[in-house]
Write a structure and sequence with these properties.
The protein is an alpha+beta fold. The chain has one domain (23-122). It contains 3 helices and 4 strands; from the N terminus they run βααβαββ. The chain has helices spanning 42-46, 57-74, 91-100, and strands at 24-29, 78-87, 112-113, 120-122. It has a 4-stranded mixed beta sheet with strand order 1-2-4-3, with no helix packed on it. β3 and β4 form a beta hairpin. The longest helix is centred in the middle third of the chain and has 18 residues, at 57-74.
Length: 123
């Protein structure tokens, strides 16, 4: 990305968003909060594919706390107004944080299919 954008005043860094300093007007949270490799118990539930026979509520609870911690670390850095780009499956985590912190929010009705897997993203 940096090579492709070399003529632009933009620099991409591969870092954990929680470590970013400052405030931002855009937060990209697509496939972060429900990644099946990182959250094998939470992800199937997010996609409506949880198996009731093998679903482990204790492991889900652990992963839910991690996801809530990620959102808790990132959302306070978002300016108001600000924009969060996320998937339809992950928007509930952002909305939950906003609701609990009494931050007004609006979820776009328009969805945009992703280039890689075709799942809709929201802006």
């Amino acid at each position: 990305l940096n090579r492709a954008c070399r003529d632009l005043p933009v620099c991409f860094l591969a870092r954990d968003a929680a470590s970013a300093q400052g405030r931002f007007d855009h937060l990209w949270m697509v496939s972060v909060l429900n990644d099946p490799e990182r959250f094998p118990h939470l992800s199937p539930l997010s996609y409506g594919q949880a198996d009731p026979v093998s679903f482990n509520p204790f492991e889900f609870q652990k992963e839910r706390r991690i996801v809530q911690a990620i959102v808790k670390q990132c959302m306070p850095k978002l300016t108001t107004p600000g924009l969060v780009t996320t998937s339809t499956e992950e928007v509930v985590w952002i909305a939950d944080w906003c609701h609990r912190h009494k931050v007004p929010y609006r979820v776009s009705r328009k969805h945009y299919p992703t280039a890689l897997v075709g799942r809709p993203d929201l802006f």
